[in-house]
Amino acid sequence: MFLPATIAAAAAAVLVLPGQAQAAGSVHIAKIWYDSPGSDTRTTASLNGEWVQITNSTRGAVNLKGWTLTDASRHAYTLPGFSLKAGKSVTIKTGRGTNNATTLFQQRGAYVWNNDKDTATLRRAGGALHDTCAYNSTRYDYKNCSSPA
């Protein structure tokens, strides 16, 4: 019969196609370094020792202008006109510095990320929730956030 062979071929084709999330990739919070090395002295070096890394695993550049990164206490950083290229990451440091293709600076004089527990939230320019990553540990200084499948 022709019909079962057609159904079998269609089922086989579905099995080898990647899922939508795999094919499309994502922009996601990849890592949070929440406890900067050494004592918390509020120096530029110490403030920049805490950071969040955002990774673009899509096949194209993503314009992050107007996206926000916040912590549980609602400290918010609005990303400037910034295009994150396909397969690349950007590190958002708490302290002061000059923005470039791989690093953005919040220009703060105080820490954002708690050393014991907090939640990073990434929202799109319109305010829609895009990704979160939470940690609850003083045993480590950073959290590797799982990327969506």
Main beta-sheet strand count, sense and barrel state: 5 strands, mixed
Uncertain spans, ≥5 residues at pLDDT below 50?
A: 1-23
Structural class: alpha+beta
Count all strands and give the number. 11
User: Span between N and C termini?
Assistant: 38 Å
Strand order of the largest sheet: 8-7-2-1-11
Q: State the order of secondary-structure elements, H for helix, E for strand.
A: HHEHEEEEEEEEEE
Gyration radius, in Å:
19 Å
- Overall, the morphology is globular
In short, what is this structure?
This protein is α+β, with helices and mostly antiparallel strands and 149 residues long. The protein is 16% helix and 33% strand.
What does this structure look like?
The chain has 149 residues and is α+β, with helices and mostly antiparallel strands. It is built from 3 helices and 11 strands. The protein is globular.
Topology of this structure?
Elements: H1 2-16, H2 20-24, E1 27-33, H3 44-47, E2 51-56, E3 62-63, E4 68-70, E5 76-78, E6 83-84, E7 89-93, E8 103-105, E9 117-123, E10 129-136, E11 142-144
Parallel strand pairs: 7-8
Antiparallel strand pairs: 1-2, 1-11, 2-7, 3-6, 4-5, 4-9, 9-10
